[in-house]
Amino acid sequence: MMEFFPEIPKIQFEGKESTNPLAFKFYDPNEVIDGKPLKDHLKFSVAFWHTFVNEGRDPFGDPTAERPWNRFSDPMDKAFARVDALFEFCEKLNIEYFCFHDRDIAPEGKTLRETNKILDKVVERIKERMKDSNVKLLWGTANLFSHPRYMHGAATTCSADVFAYAAAQVKKALEITKELGGEGYVFWGGREGYETLLNTDLGLELENLARFLRMAVEYAKKIGFTGQFLIEPKPKEPTKHQYDFDVATAYAFLKNHGLDEYFKFNIEANHATLAGHTFQHELRMARILGKLGSIDANQGDLLLGWDTDQFPTNIYDTTLAMYEVIKAGGFTKGGLNFDAKVRRASYKVEDLFIGHIAGMDTFALGFKIAYKLAKDGVFDKFIEEKYRSFKEGIGKEIVEGKTDFEKLEEYIIDKEDIELPSGKQEYLESLLNSYIVKTIAELR
Ligand code: XLS
Ligand code: CA
Ligand code: CA
Questions:
Q1: Is 101 a catalytic site residue?
Q2: Phi and psi of 185, rounded to 5°?
């Protein structure tokens, strides 16, 4: 079998003093924390599309990336080479999961029947490679946004034929995700939204989206797919407005259509910031709803208004993200998928490794800091004290539903002073900084 990365050694943990760009500084996959190796807390995954398909094209320029698998001109040879490259890449980095869209892994034929046959051949190759490897499928998905047929949407299109095409495509994607043992299946509605309301039947589009998701739930039951269904919110791009705007919007939609019990969320950092939220906000919202499923690990650039999908290197953000994951009880059928691409000018194969190492180290460090914060109950203690008034007296009655407007008026009407606690934001922020510094100082 062809080797795609002969110059890259197996990436080792060398510790915080290491200056080797091809080594982990903070991430030791086998380090046991809370009875579990770090690799099982973090469940890193490679995104097939960014790492093996994307070639560094942007709206202004041609591909820049050096990718040895693209030397093959035959589309099938290229597809198989990408699969082989994925397995070699994951093994060298000690990454146990990957994610893909149907159209990332195999070229399209003239009809859907032909496309499905081609897809089956590549799925066979993946299954073959899985046999003697630890690499597993985190989640699969269908690309319902690249082909021109999806210009008006997929489940929310104006064309019943396109709706049928999308349904058949998801049906097949569910089958192959099941066949490959995928832990989850993602719905990201890249074209499920609108450009202008002047030409949009908003009511019908939303109803059709619900019909589509229900059919997916029913088909998954029928074939015995037990993976977790995940909605990935994003407010805009490529459409001006996307229906799964953020966690709160998507949750209300699911509730409204009686679909909430079947779905959790796949939260992407860059999508959170595009929605005007922090990554932490989206994760917290999903957590309190009991719906934190998986994460697309990346970061955006706050000065740019689009989805830059950069490798996550911001310790503060990964700390707050892992804090939410820990408080949610950790990942079950989910993980940290690097939906991230190296910059167009980082065009060497080596940069793919460096990007993933940077992301893995940053999340490992974030996890360690967050673990201490959670264990010491730093924020919990503060929050509990801040809301103490709801634990006794009138507050307790409010919480237990034992009071009403009249009783509350009677209680408060002659009271002269109300005593309030301080929010102490600055104190908590500097405490967080101390935990970051303390954790780093204790690292090997
Ligand atoms: C695009 C999305 C997409 C989903 C999967 O912005 O992040 O890649 O994760 O379809
Ligand atoms: Ca994503
Ligand atoms: Ca993205």
A1: yes
A2: -140, 130
**pTM check: above 0.85:** yes
Which of 28, 41, 102, 104 is catalytic? The answer is 104
- Pocket lining: 263 vs ligand 1, CB cutoff 6 Å: no
Distance (angstroms) between ligand 3 centre and the Cα of 309 equals 5
| Dihedral pair phi/psi, residue 337, rounded to 5° | -95, 120
- Helix (H) or strand (E) run with residue 231 in it: strand 228-231
- Please check if 232 is assigned to a binding site: yes
Query: Which stretches within 150-224 are classed as H helix?
Result: 160-179, 202-223
Q: What is the pLDDT of residue 444?
A: 85
Mutate-to-test residue for ligand 1 from 52, 299, 339, highest number of ligand atoms within 8 A of CB: 339
Q: Does any ligand 1 atom lie closer than 6 A to the CB of residue 324?
A: no
pLDDT in tens, 394-436: 999 999 999 999 999 999 999 999 999 999 999 999 999 999 9
Structure confidence at residue 340 (pLDDT): 98
Instruction: Confirm whether residue 7 is marked as ligand binding.
Output: no
Q: How many residues in the chain?
A: 444
Cα(389)–Cα(49) distance, rounded to whole angstroms?
A: 51
Domains belonging to the chain, first-starting first, are: 32-376 (3.20.20.150), 379-442 (no CATH)
DSSP 376: T
Confidence label for 62 from pLDDT (cuts 50, 70 and 90):
very high
Looking at the CA of residue 234, tell me the nearest atom of ligand 1. 6
Q: Which of 361, 291, 371 is nearest to 332 (CA)?
A: 291
Q: What is the Cα Rg of the chain in Å?
A: 24
For ligand 1, atom 10, name the residue with the nearest CA: 188
CB 314 within 8 A of CB 269: no
For the segment 260-286, the average pLDDT, to the nearest whole number, is: 98
φ/ψ of residue 118, rounded to 5: -65, -45
- In the predicted structure, residue 1 carries a pLDDT above the cut 90: no
Q: How far is the CA of 296 from the centre of ligand 2 (A)?
A: 5
- DSSP 8-state code for residue 8: P
Distance, in Å, from the CA atom of 270 to the CA atom of 284, rounded to the nearest integer, reads 15
DSSP β-bridge partners for residue 338 = 46
Rounded distance from Cα 439 to ligand 1 centre (Å): 33
pLDDT tens sequence across 227-241: 999 999 999 999 999
